[in-house]
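Before relying on records like the one below, remember that each one covers exactly one chain. Contacts with other chains, cofactors or solvent are not represented anywhere in the record.
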Amino acid sequence: MPKRRATSTEPLRPEHSVSRTSAHGQSHARFEIRPAYVDDSGALAELSSQLGYPSTRAQLRRRLAKILANPAHAVFIAEAHPRSGDFPLAGWVHAYVERTLESEPTVEIGGLVVEESRRGFGVGRLLMERAERWARRTGCPTLTVRSNVLRTGAHAFYQRLGYRLVKNQRVFRKTLDRGI
């Protein structure tokens, strides 16, 4: 079995768990938050597609390996208890330290995805709490989240967690040719 690599020097044991019941009284799986491993790439790719960022397992595995090798990045996943019989990965969050000349370092959320059927059961909150704890350990005084203007549900979610809107902006991108 291949050796798994954690995202940081923090303990490998899960730090959070939650059991939830739906509004209809149906029991849902117990979730644990743990560091991501390269072996999680397939499930992470599947969840990324739900957010509108399709990736193959190989693409995500390559990206994740580079991210996990960088101590300024962390990826945490919410995993359903193995005996639940459900899709085991309930969500993921990627956080990284952003350093710029014009402002103090901040931890930024690179992505947060909760599996569609698990939304509304506290999984996203647990992932964000874990990212916030990691951010505090980095010494950064703030955590920044960027969210597409169309994702109004996500905006409300972040505001419920105490985040406040600080600006609206446009994003510009240019595809570069491979020439020197």
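The first strand starts at residue 16 and ends at 21.
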